[in-house]
Design brief:
With 365 residues, the chain is of the alpha/beta class. 41% of the residues lie in helices and 20% in strands. It has helices at 42-47, 57-62, 66-72, 75-79, 91-100, 127-137, 155-182, 203-216, 236-245, 260-269, 278-284, 323-327, 330-338, 342-364; strands spanning 2-8, 11-18, 21-25, 27-30, 53-56, 85-88, 105-107, 112-115, 122-125, 141-143, 192-197, 220-223, 251-254, 273-276, 287-291, 299-303. The strands form four sheets. Strands 4-14-13-12-11-10-6-5 form an eight-stranded parallel β-sheet. A three-stranded antiparallel β-sheet has the order 1-2-3. Strand 15 (287-291) and strand 16 (299-303) form a beta hairpin. The longest helix is centred in the middle third of the chain and has 28 residues, at 155-182.
Length: 365
């Protein structure tokens, strides 16, 4: 299902063949966390060249709920998205919820018990349930439930999270195989499954976690928890070395990465897949990524809210062919933002996503 087409040092270009289409690697997925990319319709997402998007198991489980999605058929039908979908397990969201407010839940070796932050309803999430939900979502790629501790936790707590992650990965894989058999899914149509590598800033823990996950066997492996340290610095050595621990024939998913410069670095380390809220979130706040030339990795950011753009009738980015750059000036976009018009946020988010799509195309060569 994953074919490496070419290599240059540690980086590689490849292709993934999935039930709902092919995806060229490396690639970026916007976070359609709750089943939509905020303010952007699917036609535009396809038009700018996105080949896959990411949804979140935890959020869709809570709202609209699995009964609604199953009545629709699956997440593809519910969203009317014909291309590949990847579902995050929701572990990061659940654990972040409990780490921030222990009153909202409890983590045990068997399960996670948590309360919805919206209505207070009680829920139980196990590795098995996380996999069952993702099969019901009908996704093309799914992620094991893991234990993602904050990077500033003491080593002993991170080591415990690693062991729990390994244990849960085994349970996820067992449930995955049960669901394949139960649903009579063929090899060609089966979703890919990813294990998640934990270990914080400790390379030996990352290596141990990877080795144990490889013994279980997955289609790909993700870099778990945050890729920045408690001071906000990119953990370059840890991210680089972790990629080397992963078998070459497996996909490498840099979860939550990120900024354009971090994506370029991670691609150079051998990572194939990226997702983040940055392009759409930054766009909605008026921050745009602009290429300085034809080199996609040479860019700058501007804040269109700045008063200096009020009378700037130049194009947003002469090197971009998105609907914003083809049709409007900086002055007009500044006017939309100063007027608090949703159109401005939408156009800026579309532009940033197009920037990311072009960046990944540029890396593929």
């Amino acid at each position: 299902m994953f074919e490496i087409i070419s290599k240059r040092q540690n980086s590689r270009v490849g292709k993934i063949r999935l039930k709902n289409g092919e995806v060229n690697t490396p690639f970026f997925m916007p976070d359609a966390t709750r089943g939509f990319v905020r303010s952007i319709d699917n036609e535009i997402l396809e038009e700018i060249g996105l080949e896959a998007i990411l949804i979140n198991t935890y959020h869709l489980f809570l709202n609209p709920g699995m009964e609604i999605i199953k009545q629709a058929g699956d997440a593809h039908n519910f969203m009317n998205w014909p291309k590949p979908l990847l579902s995050d397990s929701g572990g990061y969201q659940v654990f972040s919820l409990i780490h921030k407010n222990p009153k909202l839940g409890k983590i045990t070796d068997n399960e996670v018990i948590f309360r919805s932050p919206t209505d207070g309803s009680k829920h139980i999430l196990t590795p098995e349930i996380a996999i069952q939900i993702q099969f019901d979502l009908g996704v093309d790629m799914m992620v094991c439930l893991d234990d993602p501790p904050p990077n500033d936790y003491p080593r002993e707590k991170i080591a415990m999270a690693v062991e729990r992650t390994i244990s849960w990965a085994k349970r996820c894989k067992d449930e995955y195989e049960r669901q394949i058999e139960k649903r009579k899914i063929s090899e060609a149509d089966r979703p890919l499954i990813f294990g998640v590598i934990q270990g914080g800033e400790y390379l030996d823990l990352r290596k141990h976690c990877t080795q144990e996950l490889v013994k279980i066997g997955f289609d790909g492996y993700g870099f778990g928890a945050r890729h920045i340290d408690s001071q906000g610095n990119f953990m370059e050595e840890v991210v680089r070395e972790t990629a080397k621990f992963i078998p070459e024939n497996a996909l490498r998913f840099a979860l939550g990465v990120g900024t354009p410069e971090d994506i370029v670095k991670c691609y150079g380390f051998g990572w194939d897949m990226f997702d983040c809220v940055i392009p759409t979130r930054e766009g909605r706040h008026g921050r745009l990524f602009l290429r300085k030339g034809k080199n996609f990795t040479d860019y700058e950011t501007i804040n269109i809210n700045n008063g200096k753009y009020k009378k700037d009738f130049s194009s947003i980015d002469e090197n971009c062919g998105c609907m914003l750059c083809k049709n409007h000036t900086k002055a007009y976009l500044h006017h939309l933002f100063s007027s608090k018009e949703m159109l401005g946020m939408r156009l800026a988010a579309i532009h940033n996503l197009k920037f990311y799509v072009d960046l990944l195309k540029g890396l593929r060569g």
